[in-house]
UniProtKB/TrEMBL annotation:
InterPro entries: VTC_domain, VTC_sf. This is VTC domain-containing protein. One of its GO terms (biological process) is polyphosphate biosynthetic process. Residues 24-238 form the VTC domain. Transmembrane segments: none annotated. Gene3D superfamilies: VTC, catalytic tunnel domain (3.20.100.30). It comes from Luteimicrobium xylanilyticum. Coiled coil: none annotated. It comes from the Bacteria.
Length: 256
């Protein structure tokens, strides 16, 4: 990503203040990793990149949790309205870890709640994390976690985060764009692995209105796709599971 160095920097505190977007619309794209520099070269001059102590690309690790009956996975696979996702997310470079619960809001929005989590316990949910998860799911009227939760999938990747300002005078919130490369899925139980070679996952996190990044991607011929790091990873490592929402991505990009 040689074009990354040319972008102005934004600090973490300012990014979180102006474009936190815990309730948002997510649009995901799969683009050849060779296109990433082109995208960065085409963004508006007001776009800034997250920079922490001179570093602009950061290692992420996510551990996903599910019930023994895979209620989280099957809820997404069958497109149930009250589907949910539970994970710990580790920012490897800073050593920070959070437990995060994602649920569905109104009009297709994603609602994310998170709380600090011990780094050395990122593959488990302690009593505090379980209570936090249960409360977040109860608030979203999810009633599908009988039997507890166990770790099922690990994902690792490198992420670049862009701050994308809204058009002046539009009254819309600023948005974020994330670019993930080097994605690798690992099954927790078996250790089986699958790498998403040659592709980058670009995700726009906006209000209801598409961002400038969305429009740049559309102009280049890219359209949103259905890809979930948890759902798609589980589907490629467990082909016996139902995978209708991600079948096209699996066929065209993941297993090709």
């Amino acid at each position: 990503m040689s074009a990354l160095a040319a972008l102005a920097a934004v600090g973490l505190d300012e990014l979180q203040e102006s474009a936190a977007l815990q309730t948002r619309v997510d649009r995901k794209y799969l683009v050849p990793d060779t296109f990433v520099d082109t995208l960065l070269e085409r963004v508006d001059g007001a776009v800034r990149v997250l920079d922490i102590d001179g570093q602009r690309s950061f290692a992420y690790e996510s551990v996903y949790f599910d019930t023994p009956a895979l209620a989280s996975y099957l809820g997404a696979a069958h497109r149930r309205r009250r589907r949910f996702k539970v994970r710990t997310r580790t920012y490897v470079d800073s050593g920070q870890c959070w437990v995060e619960v994602k649920t569905r809001g109104t009009r297709g929005t994603t609602v994310k709640n998170r709380a600090p989590h011990p780094l050395d316990a990122r593959t488990t949910l302690d009593d505090g994390a379980l209570d936090f998860t249960a409360q977040a799911l109860d608030d979203a009227r999810v009633r599908e976690i009988d039997g507890g939760m166990v770790p099922t999938l690990l994902s690792t990747y490198e992420r670049v985060t862009l701050h994308v300002p809204a058009a002046p005078g539009s009254g819309r919130p600023d948005s974020r764009t994330t670019i993930d490369t080097g994605l690798v899925w690992t099954d927790v139980a078996s250790g089986a692995r699958h790498a998403l070679g040659g592709w980058a996952v670009v995700e726009t996190k906006t209000g209801s209105t598409p961002s400038a990044t969305d429009r740049l991607l559309w102009e280049a011929g890219h359209r949103p796709v259905r890809i979930s790091k948890y759902g798609t990873g589980m589907a490629v490592l467990h082909p016996e599971l139902p995978a209708t929402p991600w079948r096209r991505v699996l066929r065209r990009h993941v297993t090709a």
